[in-house]
From TrEMBL:
<protein>
    <recommendedName>
        <fullName>Signal recognition particle receptor FtsY</fullName>
        <ecNumber>3.6.5.4</ecNumber>
    </recommendedName>
</protein>
<keyword id="KW-0963">Cytoplasm</keyword>
<keyword id="KW-0378">Hydrolase</keyword>
<dbReference type="InterPro" id="IPR013822">
    <property type="entry name" value="Signal_recog_particl_SRP54_hlx"/>
</dbReference>
<keyword id="KW-0472">Membrane</keyword>
<keyword id="KW-0675">Receptor</keyword>
<feature type="binding site">
    <location>
        <begin position="268"/>
        <end position="271"/>
    </location>
    <ligand>
        <name>GTP</name>
    </ligand>
</feature>
<comment type="function">
    <text>Involved in targeting and insertion of nascent membrane proteins into the cytoplasmic membrane. Acts as a receptor for the complex formed by the signal recognition particle (SRP) and the ribosome-nascent chain (RNC).</text>
</comment>
<feature type="binding site">
    <location>
        <begin position="204"/>
        <end position="208"/>
    </location>
    <ligand>
        <name>GTP</name>
    </ligand>
</feature>
<dbReference type="InterPro" id="IPR042101">
    <property type="entry name" value="SRP54_N_sf"/>
</dbReference>
<dbReference type="InterPro" id="IPR004390">
    <property type="entry name" value="SR_rcpt_FtsY"/>
</dbReference>
<feature type="binding site">
    <location>
        <begin position="122"/>
        <end position="129"/>
    </location>
    <ligand>
        <name>GTP</name>
    </ligand>
</feature>
<dbReference type="InterPro" id="IPR003593">
    <property type="entry name" value="AAA+_ATPase"/>
</dbReference>
<keyword id="KW-0342">GTP-binding</keyword>
<feature type="domain" description="SRP54-type proteins GTP-binding">
    <location>
        <begin position="289"/>
        <end position="302"/>
    </location>
</feature>
<dbReference type="Pfam" id="PF02881">
    <property type="entry name" value="SRP54_N"/>
</dbReference>
<comment type="similarity">
    <text>Belongs to the GTP-binding SRP family. FtsY subfamily.</text>
</comment>
Amino acid sequence: MGIFSFFSKEKKETLDKGLSKTKENVFSKLTRAIAGKSKVDDEVLDNLEEVLITSDVGVDTTLKIIERIEKRVARDKYVTTQELTTLLRDEIATLLTENNTEDAESFTLPEDKKPYVIMVVGVNGVGKTTTIGKLAYQFKKAGKNVYLGAADTFRAAAVEQLVIWSERVGVPIVKQKMGSDPASVAFDTLSSAKANNADVVIIDTAGRLHNKINLMNELTKIKNVMKKVIPDAPHEVLLVLDGSTGQNAFEQAKQFTAATEVNALAVTKLDGTAKGGVVIGISDHFRIPVKYIGLGEGMEDLQVFNKKEFVNSLFGE
């Protein structure tokens, strides 16, 4: 059962505003790339390739897009530079649609998976705790009974921040003292949530990447302990990435997807950056659904990622 099903005018305005810096960046580069040209030729395509790469779309995804546009130009014989934006929008939208990922209305909450368990991973500073708080708000707003688990026990600030969010949203949180076993926190959270008929549980985890083996072992332990309470938990492993870091977000995605079975992505802080093109590259490259994008500080500014609306916002309807 999806929680959000309608892409409202308000959501579109939030998306347009949040992507304005990226849109301005892409269009200014695109304008320079086609200056003095009336049709799309090899030079324009070379310039377009540079525009996409420097807009953090990523090399592999850029090459796919350029190849598609080359085929269109060859087929249509004559494509004007005025048509290029429309062509670019259509080919990027098609590329993302061809992924083995579908747009989600929200996190799915099957009736036979209750509570539905989301384990959230990501390095410190990417907006992980804020994303958890906003998710909790969205689920509660939809009438769901939400529990939070503060399993990032290595940083006191992480627990304190999550407690603030739990109070702000008005949902219960399970925590232990700093330095406690994260798996123990996860166990207690799921046990409490199950006993109190919760609909969804969101578990925070430590954001350390300096030792991938330790990280992998820790996340595996947390998952194994969860299964003692709910055999098929976690149902979602959500990786939070900071979109403003551009290609560094790619590297984090590589590290975490190697360390654990990530099956959903959230890309945050897109409102403060011109690097929003990274969402296109990440969505294409990892074949893991980008489920949410962060477009501001407000509770409502965590949005379900819709490929078509995202591309339309960047390149026009």
